[in-house]
Amino acid sequence: MPDYNDSDFEQGHEDEHVPHGAMMAHAGGGHDEEHEGAPEWLISFADMVMLIMGFFVILFALNMAPPSQAGAEGDGDGEGGATVPFDRWAEFVWNTRAAFGNPIDLDTTDPELRKVVDWYYSNGPGRALDEGEPGDKEEIHSPRDTGEHSLMVDLKFGHDSEHLTDEGLERIQRLARQVRGLPMIIEVHGHASRGEAGQDTEAGLELSFERAMAVSRALVADGVDWRRIEIVAAGDNEPFTDHPSNSIEDAPNRRVEIRVTNRHAVDPVRTEPVDSP
């Protein structure tokens, strides 16, 4: 049996001793290997997604070759690369450059880009060559806001008649009780049928106006302020039944529509004439 003494045992342990700090560094990976923020797998996954997206963008761009180049390598039977209409290709180039913050200069001298610019002028927002009317507004706005209607009533009339029926008077009275004293504007649209107007458009307009006036007078008689009423004479231009083939189908066009809007009437302002300079 070999002989061992205490000094040999202690010497062996001294040779195998590893500092505590080094052990902790190997066990925990050390502070140099720690990362703050998102984990490594998430960053790698995001990079992979970006690469895949870039790959598909490249494939799409290759498929959107200009018409003069697409299909140039096809065989004699015309089979080859898919041709793309110039409009689609130009739109793709224009939108792609704009999306990446590098829009095409409208004054470019590049012949290929000039084709895209010409397409933009033909299919994009129009540019007026003549000066517009003087004023401080860039757009034209109608003073009549059609908006939404909170209530609508449809009244029928007899042939060539502007007189209200008993049922029509009752409906007007019920409506007046609901809206009298309120500020909303009431639109009264008069209509005439195709059979009533015939070939005389002016007669149809006059009849539709008389019907609208009869309804408006009935509303005023039941307490509605005249300033809240707007009259529209449509003649036979807005038929309820389009292209009627007989008088029965044409009957619904003899009507007046009462539309209670969400717009408010304003108080009238009296103005004095001013001598023009």
Descriptive notes:
- The structure is a single chain.
- With 277 residues, the protein is an alpha+beta fold.
- Among the domains are: 44-72 and 80-125, no CATH class; 149-264, OmpA-like domain (60s Ribosomal Protein L30, Chain: A), CATH 3.30.1330.
- The protein contains 9 helices and 4 strands; from the N terminus they run αααααβαβααβαβ.
- It has helices at 6-16, 20-28, 40-63, 86-99, 111-123, 166-179, 194-197, 201-221, 247-250, and strands spanning 149-156, 184-190, 229-233, 255-264.
- Strands 1-4-2-3 form a 4-stranded mixed β-sheet.
Question: Would you state the CATH class of the domain at 149-264?
Answer: Alpha Beta
Helix-and-strand structural type: alpha+beta
Beta-strand percentage? 5-15%
- How far apart, in Å, are the first and last alpha carbons? 135 Å
Shape designation:
elongated
Order of helices and strands: HHHHHEHEHHEHE
Our count of helices gives 9
Q: Write out the strand line-up for the largest beta sheet, numbering strands in chain order.
A: 1-4-2-3
Helix coverage percent: 40-55%
- Specify Rg, calculated over alpha carbons: 41 Å
Please tell me the CATH architecture of the domain at 149-264 by its name: 2-Layer Sandwich
Quaternary organisation of the protein chains: single chain
Q: How would you characterize the largest beta sheet?
A: 4 strands, mixed
Q: Low-confidence segments, ≥5 residues, pLDDT <50?
A: 16-34, 69-81
Overall average pLDDT: 75
